[in-house]
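Subject: design request, 126 residues
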């Protein structure tokens, strides 16, 4: 069998690249839309931003879902980069806590079958 890259994996690469591009375009368009309908003021610290500093103002998603972009802007919050970072740092903290819980669950779930297997082997050896 000749070993070469299968066409399937390059197809997958292309799909991933296209999905990334679409995501970037979507991100760009919701930002543009948010700029049109929301004031250029940070919702947390109330700093105002002119056009020349606009890139320091970000579009934050209230529910954390970047695909949830209602055209009326109800899921968007304008936050400066600092306040947006603060928001996400809080998100990361709570996420880290819950994933640690999941790790615990996972390890107990995988250990139990192994114990049983051990018992089975013991019985067989007897
Ligand atoms: Zn701010
Ligand atoms: Zn955000």
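Subject: RE: design request

Done. Sequence follows.
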């Amino acid at each position: 069998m000749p070993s070469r890259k299968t066409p399937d994996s390059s197809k997958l690469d292309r799909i991933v690249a296209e999905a990334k591009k679409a995501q970037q375009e979507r991100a760009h368009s919701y930002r543009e839309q948010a700029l049109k309908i929301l004031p250029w003021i940070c919702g947390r610290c109330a700093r105002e931003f002119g056009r020349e500093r606009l890139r320091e103002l970000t579009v934050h998603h209230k529910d954390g879902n970047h695909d949830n972009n209602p055209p009326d802007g109800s899921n968007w919050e304008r936050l400066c980069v600092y306040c947006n970072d603060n928001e996400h740092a809080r998100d990361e903290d709570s996420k880290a806590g819950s994933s640690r819980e999941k790790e615990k669950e996972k390890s107990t779930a995988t250990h139990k079958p192994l114990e049983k297997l051990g018992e089975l082997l013991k019985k067989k050896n007897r």
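The first helix runs from residue 7 to 37.
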